[in-house]
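Onboarding guide, step 5: your first structure request.
Type a short instruction followed by the sequence, for example:

Predict the 3D structure of this protein.
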Amino acid sequence: MKKIILIFLLFTALTNIFAQNYAPGDNEYLFTPTAYTMPKGNSYFTDYELFLLNYTYAVTDRTHLGVFIPFPITTDLLKLLSFGVKQNYLKTDWIQSAVYASYTFDTAQLILGNSISIGNPSNGANLSAGITKFFKDSNGFGILLSFGYRFDPSENTSLIAEISQIFGGDNVQNFTSTFPGGLISVAFRIRSTHLSWDLGAFRPLDMEDSGIVAFPMLKVSYYFF
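The system replies with structure tokens like these:
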């Protein structure tokens, strides 16, 4: 179970950047972060499948701090508490960029990355690249690359597609046994003033042909302002 949770921690990594016409869910796709953030003082709470919980607060228009934790079904899951930060450093009319980092204490796992969003939230692409390093009981590290696109057919709906791939570095066998490849995912997003609902599906890139098409995914975010 820990390996499954760690995959979600890696792909979600805790998000956000400068807020201009921010709408619920703009901070990320189904899994990967974008470069968009909330105005100062606002926050959001995200629930993944009623199992993984994330709360993020905008300290400034460009800085987010967040905490990510599995639902405490067992006390062992509490050890997977993670903290994250995201900082915007570039904003123009057509491109925005932010660096992000997160740290999981139980596994001593550090994630550092950068997201570049091109276009605008309602019709644009996003590229995210990062590295992850384990400092406890492992020398494993790896590189994560993600690319996605979002198109809004209406004011309150979005179509999202993304693909992510993990490349192992030092101690590749140890690393890939924990993170066995990348993901391809799609989602249909429905928004209201405060809520964002992602009805999605994902499939591991290295999954053998077992008759399974994809795994369902439900993500709900509530935007406080």
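Each response can be followed by summary notes, for example: The longest helix spans residues 2-12.
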